[in-house]
Amino acid sequence: MTIAESSPAGAGASTRNPVLEARRLVKTFGRVVGLDGVSLQLYPGEVLAVIGDNGAGKSTLIKCLTGAYIPDEGQLLLDGQEVHFKRPQDARAAGIETVYQNLAVSPALDVASNLFLGRERRRPGVLGSVFRALDTAGMRKDARAEVQRLGISTLQDVTVPVENLSGGQRQAVAVARAAAFGSKVVILDEPTAALGVRESNMVLELIERLREHGVPVILISHNMPHVFQVADRIHIQRLGKRAATITPQSHSMTDAVAIMTGAATA
């Protein structure tokens, strides 16, 4: 359970090959157009924020990237190779992990069990193969190592049930699980929604640590200050299309909102 190391994206990201690339994706639902020729590039070691008003196509785009939806047209490339995800499990197998707003953690299980949820390891030998005993000690050891690697100081005890954790700590568990197994890309859907200031800052610090470890992150968020705090680039969706891709250095929060609402163009 390791995190791939590489240098952060920085200003030279555009000179590299994207880790994940979408080319002119189209997705319709009857007469409703969810995506209308949307392209997106995610480079090594960067945080790419995706913003847009309700109905702009953010969720549809992310679902097409993660196998929940199959695009009607367009291409999806991972490390330069075209991929065809028919279900979320295909994206996960390829190294794309997603943390949704509902977190999908099991409150009754401890931190270590949640990190390995759906990927439980069995003990070696007869105990694992015949009696199907879980390697609880091994999973807890690796969970502690992953938590320490990410510098999550609030999750020192991986044997604590998740139901005893705060909202920010639960979010940290979900992000740690994604980072542990998302060897290519981690996608975070509104990770600071419904969190207080302190817990939101904890999650933002965790996103920055993922970048430091070279893990590219797609961040979907309505919170502009958070977006401008951690994003390297910002992909703006409007009415099913990509309205612009900007940076916190080239545009202000007011500019981003104006582009998002159609009051201005990039």
Automatic annotation (TrEMBL):
Any one Pfam family match given in the protein's UniProt record, by short name: ABC_tran
Q: Tell me the Gene3D superfamilies matching this sequence.
A: P-loop containing nucleotide triphosphate hydrolases (3.40.50.300)
Q: Which SMART domains match?
A: AAA (SM00382)
What GO molecular function annotation could you give as one example from this UniProt entry?
A: ATP binding
- Recite the UniProt keywords alphabetically: ATP-binding, Nucleotide-binding
Q: Is ATP-binding found in the keyword set?
A: yes
Q: Which CDD domains match?
A: ABC_Carb_Monos_I (cd03216)
Entry superkingdom: Bacteria
For this protein, the record's InterPro entries field holds:
AAA+_ATPase, ABC_carbohydrate_import_ATPase, ABC_transporter-like_ATP-bd, ABC_transporter-like_CS, P-loop_NTPase
Question: Does the keyword field hold Magnesium?
Answer: no
Residues covered by the ABC transporter domain: 20-264
Q: What is this protein called?
A: ATP-binding cassette domain-containing protein
